[in-house]
Fold these 2 entries.
Entry 1:
Amino acid sequence: MGPPSIQAVCRITTSDGKVFEGFVTLIIGGYHGTHQNGFYFYHDDHHNWTVYFDYEFNKLERTSPTKYRIGNFNPDAKRIYFLAYTLDKENYWLTETKQEVQDKSDNFLITRTVIQRKYLMLDTLPLFTDLPKYLDLDYTDKKTNRFNIAMQDIVSFEVVLEPSNFLLTEIEKKRKICYAEVYGPDSTGDFSEPIWVHELIKKPEKLKQLREEFEKWHRK
């Protein structure tokens, strides 16, 4: 089944002082390894940066109108986008392709493999308040209850390590519904439940294992 997806309860504060909490997918797991959601910082056509979620769970902050901080990185950006990797074939087939590239250098022929990934590039951040049947968030399903928060209005984005009882209850309610089906008599046995950050941090050995597997995968 591959590595699990990592989801989190997240808190967003906007420039008008409003605070929102909901669900976000940080890392998508599965048969083909791990793929991260993240942020794209655009300053101009020559200066732009991409920061993907990882197991550090760093907070994003806007420190001035065009200055941000996430971990030890402090990019300047006139615009910021949310990047969502998804596998929905009917709407946005965001896939990974490999291409062989050959370069001639002196007496050598150099062959390189280029991996291309496509992402939804959103100027709003979907913060889900409801979970689908199988718990994995779908960024192409616009019917699911969510806040769509303009990226330009966000002054901070952070993973919540102690979620509210309301959101914990929502997770447990949908978990029970999901379990009743995937572990029922017709189960195929290939269900992989997403892992929640607020539960993962209470299991340091599991967190260490997943972090090491994640780093190993991305060194390939």
Note: The first helix runs from residue 165 to 182.
Entry 2:
Amino acid sequence: MLLRVFASLLLLPTLASAVTVEVVKLYHPLSFHNTDGVGDEAEGGEPIQAAVMARPYAITGAIPEDLVKAVAAPYQIASNAIGYKVKEANLLNLCKVTMSVEMKGAKLLVRFDVSNLEVPEDLDLVARHVVGLAIEAIRSTLRDYFKGIEDEEAFQVSIAVTGTNEGNATLKDLAVRFKVGE
């Protein structure tokens, strides 16, 4: 009997700390600053030094909320170039855009707060590129993760832009709604 109690006490911390960790394909809005690389095309077909790209990411927590929050995770592009020392490539972090995410019923609400938005001078981008690529990263992440789900599991996504000011009020026009699971 004493042996069973001792064994149970040893196993208790293991059971309490059991967490599901899943490796997913996560898309990020990335800057290619300090490189010669060209990424996506902006509106009008103009090439920009940024793109939405995927990487494997080990995630835990609430899905889809934490999955979307991970789009803003810090990202350093690996390189074998001695002079390439860029510590952060995620546009959301570089430009100080924050995000809130919550699930309300069958609708995922995402809000980009651009009240502190600041595009660094070494980025050859405008705020509209940053927010547009971030929205595309969320859409790609959700569609990839939820591909093949049943119609009854489908959900709506609403992405809005908050914290605008007189100079960047048109960023609100980037608000979008789409369905995941179609």
Note: The first strand starts at residue 22 and ends at 31.
